[in-house]
Each structure stands twice: as C-alpha cells, then as structure tokens.
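Render this sequence as a predicted structure.
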Amino acid sequence: MNDKYYKTNDLALATALQVVYEPARSIDKTNRSQPEFIFRNSKKLQDYVNKFWRKELLVDPLSYSNELKNIKTRIYE
C-alpha cells in the first residue's frame, strides 16, 4: 500500500468507505473481474477500514444500497 493512497478490491468495503468517508479517487478496471478502488489514505480512513473488518462500522442501509448501485455503474461504464 502506498502511503498516499489506500487500495482495495473488496466491493463491500469500498461501498462502505464511499458512504462514511469519501468517493474513491479512481477505479482501476484493468481486471474487470476484480476492479481496484483507490482512496486518499488517512488515519480516519484506516480507522474506518479497521472498524469494517471488526464488524463495528455502522452505515445507513439506504445510503449503502444507493452507493453500491453507483459503484457498479462506475465499474461497467
């Protein structure tokens, strides 16, 4: 992981980060079956990632659903 950017190919994590943090800076679609989501790295982002994996991150279900649709549109456009 580059210190300036955080990269993940986990769709659920990327969606949650877009709800609670900020939109991905970009999506690397080189591998269509596993796109890579690139976020600006920060202590706050790392806290969200850790909470996600500990199953402690809370997100609004409707916002999550809407953001998932948006991400899928970005992947397949």
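Summary. Helices lie at 11-20, 43-53, 61-76. The mean pLDDT is 94.
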